[in-house]
Amino acid sequence: MTAAVRAASLSVEGLTYTIQGKKLLDNVSLRAGQGELVGVIGPNGAGKSTLLRALAGVIEPSDGDCYLEGRRFVEMPARERARAIALVPQVAPMAHGFTCLELVLMGRYPHMGRFQIEGASDEDIARQAMRLTDTEQFAERTIETLSGGERQRVFIARALAQQPRVLLLDEPTSNLDILHQLRVLGLIREWASNGATAIAAVHDLNMAARHCDFLILLSNGKVISEGMPEDVLTAENVSGAYGVESVIYRDPHTDALALSLIGPSAGFPHRNRVKAP
After folding, report:
1. What is the pTM of this model?
2. What is the 3-state secondary structure (H, E, C) of 117-184?
3. Domains and CATH numbers, the chain
């Protein structure tokens, strides 16, 4: 599947999104390069999902620009952008009556003409995506017969069948068991390393530290810290953003950065108190 994936880099400058007078994103800038898996972390309400939706073009920012390979989003035809960028939402939408194979084949639509129907090559790509996500056994089942985690993997397969140059995922492991968490994040890591760009909102900080090349820590819609996992996941940052005390160390088995959570930070208010520099 990597033959159709070309070099990609996505960047954002001064992205702001305001709704009903509240800034959900406040002057966010970032860059995700070719071959990179960038993790977006932060507490609930930090702006992770809003950022991914803006990067996918689902919502229009109030200010700032997004660029794909140096081209502004607003200058790209919608169909071209749809072929290049795929979004896996946090909650897999229900699509009653469709089989899982039919749903995964929908990922091929941006590559097809207005009246074109799926061909044998499209089905081959879809089935390969389902094999990669361990969902091929569900091909003829309707989506409503699956568990939440199984549905989530089907929608990841649909995104892969799109063969995007940029893959956006909002909490891709939130409903998965331990085995499939490892498999899915490993698959995303491999997809990126083959020349694509992946940006994922990740709730599990240990998983983020283990699988991501770079991390972006959001709080109250602002970028609080960014860089390699060891630069971002510090006890001070975790306490400031999440309100918990932690110990950061190297896992002796994986050599990945790991966190042990001790308990709530003393005096941490209900609302995030981290301020951007």
Report:
1. 0.89
2. CCCHHHHHHHHHHHHHCCCHHHCCCEHHHCCHHHHHHHHHHHHHHCCCCEEEEECCCCCCCHHHHHHH
3. 3-264 (3.40.50.300)
